Amino acid sequence: MKTEMASQMNTQIKTKKEFHKLKDYIGSYLFVLPALSFLFIFSIAPILYLIWLSFHDYSLPNPAEFTGLKNFSQMLQDKLFIKSLGNTIVYTAGSMFLGLSGAIAVAVLLNRKLRGLRFFKVFYFLPTITSEVITAMIFLWVFDNNLGILNYLLKLAGVEAPPAWLLQPTTAMIILILIGAWRGTAYNIPIFLAALQAVPQSLYEAARIDGANSWKQFIHITLPSITHILVYTMVMSVIGSFQVVAVVDILTNGGPMDSTMVVIKHIWQQSFEFNYVGYGAALSLVLFPFLLAVTWLQLKLSSGKD
């Protein structure tokens, strides 16, 4: 009798524990349900819809028509898409190299605890918090061939025919790269500064005792110590550079002669200007694995160095 009662009590206790455990699970999922719903509605669902659109010929307001792999085969024959991809790679490489180099250089200087450091911390971050449209307008007022400040000053200096900066393929791309590098430098300075401040000072003291100058300390101590941060900023720079569009819209609109046509600008034109929504979706879908491959390659190279 006692054994049966003990068994029943154990069963009841076990049932209560399972009930409370289930209750905790349900409560936990209810807490994260709003975030999961937001993620599904604004991230997962649009991606699934993008995949569905990429296999259809869709032009508003006409209904979508299934075409299979037609959009992807058309992509291989789209010379402007291939050119825009090349332009984006050039822009990414240039802006990333200049931006990260400038960020590291300024961070090293700020790490030496210069006077007025608090002022610099506010000042150097301004390009990042400034809208891309405003940034583009500032550079347009500087480099516009008719109303630009730079050409006005050149004419005052005696230059009769100053260059049309934004109407020449090479100079137009260089200006876009400089804008990207300027914004990238401002964004990455605090990141590199925090990484430099985490490097043990004992390493530099030991290097100075061994007779290493500042350059050798930077090469053999500073850079190896911030490699993981450098890889992170490279990945973020690549992703950010492939998303540039506002600056191109305002300064060059993809010209001259499509020399500054970037991938996102081309996708925007196909989707919303020419109303080839299905083809634009296919272009967007191909861009994702490309960025994924670049990111994986950078991480692979960095891990190989480690």
Automatic annotation (TrEMBL):
Residues 85-298 form the ABC transmembrane type-1 domain. InterPro entries: ABC_transporter_permease (IPR051393), MetI-like (IPR000515), MetI-like_sf (IPR035906). The chain crosses the membrane at residues 26-52, 89-110, 122-143, 163-182, 229-251, 276-297. GO terms for cellular component: plasma membrane. GO terms for biological process: transmembrane transport. It is a multi-pass membrane protein. It is found in: Cell membrane. Keywords: Cell membrane, Membrane, Transmembrane, Transmembrane helix, Transport. Its main location: membrane. It holds the Pfam family BPD_transp_1. Belongs to the binding-protein-dependent transport system permease family. PANTHER family: ABC TRANSPORTER PERMEASE PROTEIN, INNER MEMBRANE ABC TRANSPORTER PERMEASE PROTEIN YCJO. This is ABC transporter permease subunit. It comes from Metabacillus idriensis.
